[in-house]
Amino acid sequence: MKNEETTKAIATPPLKKETVAPTPPRPVSKNATVEKAPAPRDEQAP
After folding, report:
1. Composition of the chain by helix, strand, coil, percent to 5
2. Mean pLDDT over the full length of the chain
3. What is this structure's pTM?
4. Nearest to 20 by CA among 28, 31, 29
5. Which letter does DSSP use for residue 29 in this model?
6. HEC states along the chain?
7. What is the pLDDT of residues 5-24, one digit of tens each?
8. What is the pLDDT of residue 42?
């Protein structure tokens, strides 16, 4: 029973990564703008 849970957990990450890959494309656009704002601040800090 414990082995089955481990196999499901390992088989879930790969499936979730594949589903998240096609999803980020849209949210990435909005995140890209928010990430660009904080990015310059980090560069100016040093």
Report:
1. 85, 0, 15
2. 56
3. 0.15
4. 28
5. H
6. CHHHHHHHHHHHHHHHHHHHCCCCHHHHHHHHHHHHCHHHHHHHCC
7. 655 656 555 555 555 555 55
8. 56
